[in-house]
Amino acid sequence: MKGINRSKLINFFVILAVILLLIFFNLRGLLVAPKDIVFFVANPFLKLFGALDKGIFGTWNFFVALKDLNIENANLKNENAALLNEVTNLKESARENESLRQQLGVAGIKNQKLVMAEVAGYNPVLGQYFLIDKGRNDGLYINMAVVAAGDFFVGRVVEVNDNFSKALLISDSNSSVNTITMESRVAGVVKGNHGLGIVMEMIPIDAQIKIGETVLTSGLNDGIPKDLIVGKITDIVKKENEIFQSATVVPFVDFKSLEQVFVLIR
User: What integer pLDDT is reported at residue 104 of this predicted model?
Assistant: First the structure.
C-alpha cells in the first residue's frame, strides 16, 4: 500500500516538473519551433474537421430554412384564402345592400314589407318560371308579386312550399296582369307571348298611346300593387275592323340574369 502511494507521489512530481519546464522553455522562447511543427502537422486535420463541421451545419441550416419557408408559404396561402373569402363576402354584402337601397327608394312599394329571395333555378325549356329560396315559413303565399331591384315587376308566386316557392314570369303565356301606360294613362292587359316577350292587349282602338311609353301595373290584380314597372312600348299594332289595338312591351329586366328578387308581402 505504501509502495503504491509512493509511486503516485513520484508521478505527480514528475508531471509537475515537466509542466514547470514547459513553462520555463516557453518563457525563454524555446518552444516556438516545436509549436510550429505541431501546428503544421495538425493544420490539415483542423481544416478538414472545420469544413466537415461547416458542411454539416450548413446542410442542417438549409433544411431548417426550407422547412421554415414551407411553413411560411402555407401560412401565406391560408391568409390569402381568408382574405379572398372576406373580400368576396364584402362584395356580396355590398351587392345585397345596393339592391335593398334601390328598393327602399321606390315610392310604389315603400309601405310594403319585402322579403328578399335568391333565384335558385330557372329553366325556360320547362316553362317561364323560376324557383326562389323563400316559402311559407317566410310569409309567402300564392299570387304575391315578385319584383327585381328598382321596382321592376317580373312575375308572381304560383306555388308555395315551406322553404321554397315557384314564381311565374310575366313572359309566360299563362301570365296576365292589368296595366296602364304612364303618360297617356291608357289601360290594358299585359300577357306573356309564349316566352318570346310580352304584349299589352285590350287597348281601345282609339286610345292614343306612344312608342317609348312606360307601362305600369294598375293595381287591379289581387296581390299586385299599382305602379310597378312592367316595361316600355316598342311597337304598336292596329288592325282594321278591330275594336282593340295591341302593343309590344319590352321588360327593363333580363329575366335570365336574375340572381335576387323581392316578394311583396301583403
Answer: 47
Question: What radius of gyration, in Å, describes the C-alpha atoms of the chain?
Answer: 46
Query: What are the φ and ψ backbone dihedral angles of 87, each rounded to 5 degrees?
Result: -60, -40
Element (DSSP H or E) covering residue 40: helix 32-104
Q: Are 216 and 182 in contact (CB under 8 A)?
A: yes
pLDDT level of residue 161 (50, 70, 90 thresholds): very high
* C-alpha distances in Å from residue 122, one per residue of 93, 112, 140, 169, 255: 23, 26, 19, 10, 9
CA 64-65-67 angle, 5° bins: 65
The distance of Cα 83 from the centroid of its chain, to the nearest Å, equals: 11
Give bridge partners of residue 6 from the DSSP assignment. Answer: none
Phi first, then psi, for residue 252 (nearest 5°) are -85, -10
66-76: pLDDT as tens digits: 667 777 777 77
Taking a C-beta distance cutoff of 8 angstroms, is the pair 236, 200 a contact? no
Domains and CATH numbers, the chain: 111-266 (2.40.10.340)
| pTM confidence score | 0.60
Q: Could you give the count of Cα atoms lying within 13 Å of 121 in the half-sphere of its Cβ?
A: 8
Give the pLDDT band of residue 177 (cuts 50, 70, 90): very high
* Residue 198, pLDDT above cutoff 90: yes
pLDDT > 90: percent of the chain: 42
Question: How far is 133 from 127, CA to CA, in rounded Å?
Answer: 18
Residue-wise DSSP of 89-154: HHHHHHHHHHHHHHHHT-GGGTTSEEEEEEEEEE-TTT-SEEEES--GGGT--TT-EEEETTTEEE
Average pLDDT over residues 171-184: 93
